[in-house]
Design brief:
Cytochrome C Oxidase, Chain A; two-stranded antiparallel sheet; 19 helices; about 65% helix; about 0% strand; electron transport; transmembrane; heme binding; transmembrane helix
């Protein structure tokens, strides 16, 4: 794709153009090739994320139809197990791509930068994610695997070739995530506009910084754990084989040291989107700005201390249970700061119920359900009963939808005019919301209910005497409501690119520089004239408050 062309030329001593001097041809073709524009790369990540969202969601619809009745109706046991694992990991990679989409597109615009710190590395990170995604999807055609998305040995040591494709795909996706995190950290710390100190920085930039710190420092652990299983499969090494002196619980420690902080990689950008957009539609300053900013770093820090609550039933040392229980419950403190800030921001505000605001409200409600259903899984006594039950499935989906999916849709509706110069259809957007929200709530509560009654997760069949068929039918119908809402969203997105209402002004009356300074759609190199921050980002409703001003162009620039 051209990722190495300039690097090889530089290594040979040849002159390479500065990214700020490169002018790419406008048009749709930019999105299908190698681009150094962070906005194009953000859109590329978004389309890859939506592709994986559709693929992973389709896997779920298939096995949900299978679960409506007892007995195996449509698929084999092995294929069912493969669908379960593929659904989980495909959507996890989809979320990672969605986070990269939001961060790549929005962060340089929000902080007044002309581009990312390392544009070539940014493009390379995306083009690592493409083969990773394709290899992951190919696992279903190469024998599949029956381990679920966690890949636990010793089962993963005996799984078909699809297991190896799964490991390779996650390894490359992790590599992409690490490089992207490095780029974002440098961009946020070194490329802010003059006058933008850390506490004048948008909350979404704070959330992205915390997320990138986790991704940079923890992703290696899942890569290492999967690489060790791969070596054990290919070369007979005994890292996790007890007969060779290995320890299978070691894998779980390595895996969950990344995979629980990864939950905060998934939700912190979404929570940042809520805090970023809420003042725009409430027309009030964000309540407790500094506390909200620091709470993202607090969640990132505490997130490294909670991984073993996934292992209370694994046979690890019992004396570790209590400290990990307390550290898990401690996450509620910085998360609660965000909730209280959102409620206080909305209190007595002049709320405008436009489509992005609807999804923000949905995100707050759904994430609250995910948060309240978490402590029973974090305390030892209740975890021992509910571990690996469908209650965990309901909790995890509520956390992911409230912490990422709803905020992602809000972000797409909000920044879509800046990308395309057109606004998405409001009626279709509201239909999308009013289908998605009740559909998801029914699905999530139904999963929690059957979990409390004894339904295990990743199980293809169940005893008819348990009486789960009606509940699974309702859950499946709700799942199809969610799928229909996403289909309406995709239709809206593609049709609006050609037929949407033309937008050239600050359509949301935002104070952010990408709306107040830049034309719509945004030019390639962002700010042709430098800007300076002279106020606070969320002073909505305060008379005479200013956030940025345009600096005069200097001679010779």
């Amino acid at each position: 794709m051209g990722a190495f062309r300039d690097w090889f030329a530089w290594a040979k001593g040849e002159e390479t153009p500065d990214p700020e001097e490169i002018q790419e041809e406008p048009g749709v073709k930019r999105y299908f090739g190698f681009s150094l524009d962070h906005k194009v790369i953000g859109v590329q990540y978004a389309f890859l994320s939506l592709f994986l969202l559709v693929v992973g969601g389709s896997f779920a619809l298939i096995f949900r139809v299978e679960l409506v009745q007892t007995g195996m109706q449509w698929v084999s046991l092995n294929f069912f197990n493969t669908l379960i694992g593929m659904h989980g990991m495909t959507l996890i990679v989809s979320i990672l791509m969605g986070i990269s989409a939001m961060s790549n597109y929005a962060v340089p615009l929000l902080i007044g930068a002309r581009d990312m710190a390392f544009p070539r590395l940014n493009a390379f990170s995306f083009w690592l994610a493409v083969p990773a995604s394709l290899v992951l999807v190919s696992a279903i055609f190469t024998g599949g695997f029956d381990t679920g998305w966690t890949g636990y040995p010793p089962l993963s040591l005996r799984a078909p070739m699809g297991m190896q494709m799964f490991f390779v795909a996650v390894f490359f996706a992790g590599w992409s995530s690490i490089l992207g995190a490095l780029n974002l950290i440098v961009t946020i710390l070194r490329m802010r506009a003059p006058g933008m100190n850390m506490f004048r920085m948008p909350i979404f930039a704070w959330a992205t910084l915390a997320t990138s710190i986790i991704a940079l420092t923890a992703t290696q652990l899942i890569g290492t754990s999967f690489q060790m299983v791969s070596f054990e499969r290919l070369f007979g090494m005994g890292f996790f084989d007890a007969t060779k002196g290995g320890n299978p619980i070691l894998f779980q420690h390595l895996f969950w040291f990344y995979s629980h902080p990864a939950v905060y990689i998934f939700v912190l950008p979404g929570l940042g989107i809520i805090s970023e957009l809420l003042p725009v539609f409430v027309r009030k300053p964000l309540f407790g700005y500094k506390w909200v900013a620091m709470s993202s770093l607090g969640i990132a820090l505490v997130g490294f201390l909670v991984w073993a609550h996934h292992m209370f039933t694994s046979g690890m040392e019992e004396y570790l249970r209590v400290p990990f229980m307390y550290s898990t419950l401690l996450v509620a403190v910085p998360t609660g700061i965000k909730f209280f800030s959102w409620v206080a921001t909305m209190w007595m505000g002049r709320i405008r119920f436009q489509v992005p605001m609807l999804f923000l409200i949905g995100a707050i409600i759904v994430f609250l359900i995910g948060g309240l259903s978490g402590p029973p899984l974090g305390t030892v006594s209740t975890n021992l009963h509910m571990h690996d039950s469908y209650f965990v499935v309901g909790h995890f989906h509520a956390t992911m939808f409230g912490g990422f999916i709803f905020p992602l849709f809000a972000a797409v509706y909000y920044w879509y005019p800046k990308v395309t110069g057109r606004k998405m259809n409001d009626l279709l957007g509201k239909i999308h919301f009013y289908l998605l929200t009740p559909g998801f709530l029914i699905m999530s509560f139904g999963q929690m209910q059957v979990g409390l009654l004894g339904m295990r997760r990743r199980i293809a069949d169940y005893d008819p005497a348990q009486g789960f068929e009606t509940a699974h039918l309702i859950i499946t119908i709700a799942g199809f409501m969610v799928a229909l809402s996403v289909l309406i969203f995709l239709i809206n997105m593609f049709v609006s690119a050609k037929r949407g209402e033309v937008v050239t002004e600050n359509v949301w009356q935002s104070r952010s520089p990408e709306w107040t300074v830049l034309p719509t759609p945004a030019p390639m190199h962002n700010y042709p004239q430098p800007i300076r921050v002279v106020g606070d980002p969320y002073d909505y409703g305060l008379k005479g408050a200013r956030y940025v001003e345009v600096l005069p162009q200097q001679a010779g620039d």
